[in-house]
Design a protein that fits this description.
It holds the Pfam family UvrC_RNaseH_dom. It comes from Herpetosiphon gulosus. The structure is a single chain. With 641 residues, the protein is an alpha+beta fold. Helix content is 45%, strand content 18%. The strands form 4 sheets. Strands 14, 15, 16, 17, 18, 19, 20, 21 and 22 form a 9-stranded mixed beta sheet that branches. Strands 4, 8, 9, 10, 11, 12 and 13 form a 7-stranded mixed beta sheet that branches. The protein is globular. It starts with 11 loop residues before the first helix and ends with a helix.
Length: 641
């Protein structure tokens, strides 16, 4: 009989009966907390055995698992026919819900890729999503800066166009190339300065370069240089010669390895205090062409096999390329199932290998050392950030005479354009750091015109009504992870702040204090943020209700830096929501007269491209790839926008 004494489940008899009736088949199990939020997703080849194992003697569980079990209020399960189906379902649920007790690839949906578009004159772009649009994708990369640097290098080498379609057509009509042609950063297809074949060759060289095959590029370039010299096109021959030298310089920086010539990734990790850095080496054609570090969270007390399994499934689910060989420090859980999934995704045989000696083992060790060095650097950053936050919170407590450190701070801001599209934002900082899943945004409903004081009162009324009445919600804020689903549960609204910051002066602060008192929350301290005069006598100050003289900060006070950071984040968040509403309104208005574009297609286009400018810059192929769109409708849009 399972021991449920360490859970918060009230009806033990019913729960035990449900555990006994679990199937022995493979599937996925889902744990939820009291607020009905998914807090863990797991898979097993035997659901009954795996789920019951959580509710046995607690001494056999890790402390992380004990904390998980203490928060389980309910569970559900989904059976599958095979273990592979269970793996796929688990991956999709983790991606969708990002449960707090699962090992998660940090910001996994925001990693950038390099994309070669499928167009008459293809472009090379940085993108955040892999779409089934005929484009060729490379990545993911850990940092956008490395993508920008790579595209910059590729453009110098192969001179593909950088302009969008609108700019291309503008120069095409004038039959005159832009300055990038003059500085040899574009082949000038808009002005017929190159043939389709010449441009396609350049794009193919980009693809070969990103695929780790520079030798093929060099062979092609040397043929072109010799041909140009024979034809007495000496300027052209010199240009190609410079390309050859540039490619050779890049090849010199790539580490030549004595491993097998086949393409492979090398993966190793370093971990400390619940965080881990995973280093990925990309080896193509026997050369190390790239190295990217990725951060994992929630790794405390996880076995190396489970950690590696979590990383492989999350990383390669988003990867644009899967090599035939992957070198690892340890085999993951369910190695054969993961290999089977990788093979079905990659379209070829994939082997997970754990080398024990020789060059391949040295390569895995090198990746582990790189991961350890990256983790050391991140640890210093985290430590410095924590120290700065603590100093700032301590100063706020002292200046405002608070009983304790304000561990949770909520900051409110109002934004509008001449009284239209008024919106409010609530950003949350916990322990001095943004808690983006708790951000909220409010569309002002009861206030006409530009009345920040009344708008602020409405926002606070709605927010603190939900501290007691959690059956309603305002629009949940998107996190900085695209498509992530932020928490929108009862618990989020019920957590009260230790301090409220208002972007405004005495009028807004007095109104906020009055609203809080009417709602029964007068015990929560509230202060306003006021900016200094143009001479810089008061860079920032805090205004309490009923006190017109601000509490001033010195220029380098830690409290000032914290307040500035919170205020800037609140303003950014409010403006981004306001701009989104305004852009949607303009977009709908602009698209009203386009034949064949109804409400559903408008919504799909807005979701896909975000703005009118984004739709204008999209190619016909990208527009046609949006769900519900057709090529004819895409051509109508491009012809009228």
């Amino acid at each position: 009989m399972p021991d449920l004494s360490h859970t918060n489940i009230s009806n033990h008899a019913l729960f035990e009966e449900r555990l006994r009736n679990l199937p022995l088949s493979p599937g996925v199990y889902i744990y939820r907390d009291q607020a009905n939020t998914i807090i863990y997703v797991g898979k097993s080849k035997s659901l009954r055995d795996r789920v019951r194992s959580y509710f046995g003697a607690p001494r056999g569980l890790t402390s992380k698992t004990r904390r998980l079990v203490q928060n389980i209020a309910d569970f559900e399960f989904i059976t599958t026919d095979t273990e592979l189906e269970a793996l796929l379902l688990e991956m999709n649920l983790i991606k969708k819900h990002r449960p707090r007790y699962n090992v998660l690839l940090k910001d996994d949906k925001s990693y950038p890729y390099i994309k070669i578009t499928k167009e008459e004159w293809p472009r090379v772009l940085r993108v955040r999503k892999v779409l089934e649009d005929g484009g060729i994708y490379f990545g993911p990369f850990a940092k956008a800066s490395s993508v920008y640097a790579t595209i910059e290098l590729l453009n110098k080498l192969f001179a593909f166009r950088l302009c969008n379609d609108d700019m291309f057509k503008k120069h095409e009509r004038r039959n005159r190339a832009c300055m990038y042609y003059d500085i040899k950063r574009c082949l000038g297809p808009c002005a017929n300065n190159c043939t389709t074949e010449e441009y396609s060759t350049a794009i193919n060289q980009v693809r070969l370069f990103l695929g780790g095959k520079p030798e093929a590029i060099l062979r092609d370039l040397k043929v072109k240089m010799n041909q140009a010299a024979e034809d007495l096109q000496f300027e052209r021959a010199a240009y190609v010669r410079d390309q050859i030298k540039a490619v050779e310089r890049v090849m010199e920086r790539q580490k030549v390895l004595n491993t097998a010539a086949s393409d492979q990734d090398v993966i190793a990790f370093a971990r400390d205090e619940g965080k881990a850095v995973v280093q990925v080496f990309y080896i193509r054609g026997g050369k190390l062409i790239g190295s990217e570090p990725f951060t994992l969270q929630g790794t405390e007390e996880e076995h190396p096999e489970a950690l590696m399994s979590s990383f492989l499934t999350q990383f390669y689910d988003a990867a644009a390329d899967i090599p035939p060989n992957i070198l690892l420090p340890d085999y993951p859980e369910e190695t054969q199932i993961i290999e089977q999934w990788l093979e079905s995704k990659g379209g070829h045989k994939v082997s997970l290998q754990v080398p024990r000696r020789g060059d391949k083992k040295d390569l895995v060790d090198l990746a582990a050392r790189n991961a350890s060095q990256t983790l050391d650097q991140l640890r210093l950053q985290w430590l410095n950030a924590e120290q700065r936050a603590t100093a700032g919170l301590s100063q706020l407590r002292e200046l405002l005479n608070l009983a304790d450190l304000p561990q949770r701070i909520e900051c409110y801001d109002i934004s509008n354009t001449q009284g239209t599209n008024s919106v409010g934002s609530m950003v949350v900082f916990e322990q001095g750091e943004p808690a983006k899943k708790h951000y909220r945004r409010f569309k002002i409903k009861t206030v006409e015109g530009a009345n920040d004081v009344a708008s602020l009162s409405e926002v606070l009324q709605r927010r603190f009504a939900r501290a007691d009445d959690t059956g309603q919600t305002d629009e949940p804020a998107p996190t900085d992870q695209p498509n992530a689903e932020p928490s929108n549960n009862d618990e989020t609204w019920a957590v009260l702040p230790d301090l409220i910051l208002i972007d405004g002066g005495i009028g807004q602060v007095n109104a906020a204090a009055k609203t809080l008192a009417a709602a029964g929350f007068e015990h929560i301290p509230v202060v306003g943020l006021v900016k200094g005069d143009t001479k810089g006598h008061l860079p920032y100050g805090l205004v309490k209700p009923g006190q017109r003289v601000p509490i001033a900060f010195a220029q380098n006070d830690p409290g000032l830096h914290l307040v500035q950071r919170i205020d800037e984040e609140a303003h950014r968040f409010a403006i981004s929501y306001h701009r989104k509403l305004r852009t949607k309104g303009m977009l709908r208005s602009t698209m009203e007269d386009i034949p064949g574009i109804g409400p559903k297609r408008k919504k799909a286009l807005i979701n896909a491209f975000g703005s009118l400018e984004g739709i204008r810059n999209a190619s016909i192929e990208e527009l046609a790839a949006v769900p519900g769109m057709t090529r004819k409708a895409a051509e109508e849009i491009k012809g009228l926008l």
